[in-house]
Structure prediction request, 694 residues.
Amino acid sequence: MPEFVSNNISTINFILINIALGLSIYITLATGLLSLSNAGFMAIGAYTVAIISTQSNIPFSVGLVMAIALGVALALPIGMLVLGLRDIYLAIATLGFGEIVRIIALNGDKVVHLFSQNKELIIFNGAEGITLTYKTPTVILGLPDTTWPILIYVMVIIYILATLHNSRFGRILASIRQDETAASTLGVNVVHYKLLAFVLGSAIAAGAGALSAPIVRVIDPHNYVFSRGVDILAYAVLGGMTHWVGPILGATVLTSLPEALRFLKDQRDIVNGLIIMLSIIYLPAGLADPRIWGLFKRLVSFPKREQVS
Amino acid sequence: MKARFFSFPTVLMLLFVCFAAIDVSSASAASASSLSGEIPIGAVWSMTGAAAVYGSSQKNASELAVDEINKSGMLGAGKIKLITEDDRSTKEGAITAFDKLIKEYKVVAILGPTLSNSAKAADPIAQAAKVPVLAVSNTAGGIVEMGDFIFRDSLSEMLVQPNTIRETKNKLGYKKVAILYGNDDVFTKGGYDAFKKALNDQGIQILATETFNKNDSDFSAQLTKIKGLKPDAIIVSALAEEAAGIMSQGRQLGIPDSVPFIGGNGFNSPKLAQLAGPAAEGAITGAAWLISNDTPGNKAFVEAYHKKFGANPDQFAAQAYTGVYILANAIKTAGSSNPTAIRDAMAKIKDMDTVLGKFSFDAHREPVHSPVVQIIKNGKFVLYK
Prediction:
């Protein structure tokens, strides 16, 4: 493993997980839905894998599939219920869902005791959460075996999104975002596509949560509080919501910046906040703003400018 | 054209210039660390986020202790270089900070992290790299069990609470109590578990167990129910903010002063008396350290801390301060800055004089020193007699 990678492997892991989360909210945002349930679905994924690996011998890969399946199974009915709402009302409803998931995780054992004969059974372990045993990762082809699944997962999502972007499906989602009424008069089944985008986003978030479990190892309800949902939203907002490159850039910058700025010590948060504020002011369309690419091309085409920097 | 000056590329360029300047200064500091005699020790505190209140005292106290040790020449030609990292009160932050300290700074030992669940997430990294970790505020279960390189100088709730119950029961002679605790926080939930066990072991009847959540501000429903049951004492496992609300509302609802509030580690904050005012009078809590302790060096520590930071130290500061001295002592005994040698020397520490009192590690790397019981009198913590 190259030294830079091995020194920063946990930051790289978190960047990849956050990219997946950023992409999960991107799909709903690209459809014009402000849904904040991603932290809740992330919790569902993480708890599914954590419970499966502590209570049974089912391998992680099966657990991952089960986590995504559970995410889909829950997203369908919830989507049908809340997608009649728009804008801020949808945001509040989905936020409520995230809180419900967190409270259930907190009191999960009480629910279990309602149905189980064994009143001492501890599965969710309340505020202390589930701690997974630590295994020293083995290095395969230059990356630890805990990083590979996340990398592959992110690649698959990017491939799907890149394919969708210019497809009929992608254009339908964009048309719903730009004008829902116009889209429906053109014959687009708006409800159908909104639900599809919501389920897809939720499934990706559940998968990301499942993949984060072996990395974070301590799965407690505090991981999935309101601020987690806001963080996920920030990846897409900072990166840009019009192209799938946006959340990738946003998640990478927002996750790596605090680490890269560690040398600033006490001033770290000030500089971190300043950079984010300036990017929002000067790049309201996000880091994936086409203007940036134009600027980049201009810089490259003037060799003199390169010497200055 | 004027607006052009503040265009994005210009600002970006300016930022880069700033970074380059800062980078040069940090690079020169880094090259100095390769000089012999500097012993890099990492510290991971929650300096931002939910646990920042505790992290900032820990940071202050650890820096104070390192300054004192380096000035006194305790380690001969060696000087401790403390590298402090913030974990933002998150597990992710603690994991990346541990990675950075171990792999990049090659620290010989790590103090922290502030929160127990962050410790559970990050400590195995140090255990795998064979770098000793000394926790100074983790009180939950399952910390030292993570491996033979994990130590703590913070008494677990399971050690402090039975002592509090025993001492108060002997003096007050209560037989039936009610419990009120925060069930969504590891700290307060852990305190509840310890209280429940101690009460059961000592044959005290629990009339009712009521819960609340962090940031709740209305406890009247729980307190009214408790008042109706007429307990002899009320056990509260809460952080300072909620504890203050419980006490004020309890007294307002007419729970008589003869029914004391007995609390866990969350009570150990000067904030409690400030927030609850007269309602906090007579509140009893178990602690690892008391500001008026007559333990060796305690008076000097409190004075030096007050002089440097303009505030009185709390228990978290005292435990972090002790942590640095324990590590320095282990490095001195080991006579080397090899992490495994430090670990072995630390495991052998017996009856060391610290501000917490005579300090030893038991066979499981758990701290051994006597906890104290304190009571709030005239808005201040004093020893409970």
Residues 206 and 275 of chain A are 30 Å apart (CA to CA). Chain A has one domain: 3-308.
